[in-house]
């Protein structure tokens, strides 16, 4: 873990520059449809996309899953995903005495009735945000568990990713997706080998939604593109992957207007080239 973190810190300047360049240029990884407006929904909905590129919001039946209790558990940060059988995997933040946090995950083989002892996904957070931090996002596909999250590590704040090839029983060392100035909202989705991470840009004064794409089961993320359109400010990203289709959704506000009641949920769908 320490050698990997040291490598990330040493390569931070050029990695940040390359990520910014890819986001600015838009990339050639996806061919996008025109953006459309979605009927907005509360936090009990998730984005899905079908083989024909039709994106919708559906009820998330795993809202309210509680794999672990205790005063240090950030209950509002729990996010869960279901394998094709009854297996459920959840991830959440647990705070330390100094208000930094540990990212944990656990597996339930009976649909959430009972849970295995939690395992550590990432332990190097140094922020003092306590439970006032964005929740992680989790996706399960073909036995792989993918977790995206925002935290402040020793090398800086940003968006990070970790995955498990053992259905959540152990996790590979985390890696940085993007560094920035602040903690930010993230979302992740996967369909077999294709993984998409949508995130609100952690830098800049007019936030937009970026998208990191892996075609190698999350082992590498060479494709970085802008997910939102650049109009207004974009927040609260969602992402859905089905085959080679990737849908990205966000709340769009007019510049200078932070009212969530006047925000519009936008979605557009890309097809991997």
Ordered list of secondary-structure elements with their pairings:
Blueprint: H1 2-10, H2 12-25, E1 30-32, E2 36-38, E3 45-49, E4 55-59, E5 79-82, E6 88-95, E7 101-108, E8 119-122, E9 137-141, E10 144-153, E11 156-164, E12 175-180, E13 186-191, E14 194-200, E15 209-214, E16 223-226, E17 233-242, E18 245-253, E19 264-272
Antiparallel strand pairs: 1-19, 2-19, 3-4, 5-6, 6-7, 7-8, 9-10, 10-11, 11-12, 13-14, 14-15, 15-16, 17-18, 18-19
Describe the structure.
The protein is mainly beta and 273 residues long. The model is unreliable at 1-26 (pLDDT under 50). The protein has a single domain (2-272), classed as 6 Propeller (Neuraminidase). It has helices at 2-10, 12-25, and strands at residues 30-32, 36-38, 45-49, 55-59, 79-82, 88-95, 101-108, 119-122, 137-141, 144-153, 156-164, 175-180, 186-191, 194-200, 209-214, 223-226, 233-242, 245-253, 264-272. The strands form five sheets. Strands 1, 2, 17, 18 and 19 form a five-stranded antiparallel beta sheet that branches. The relative contact order is 0.17.
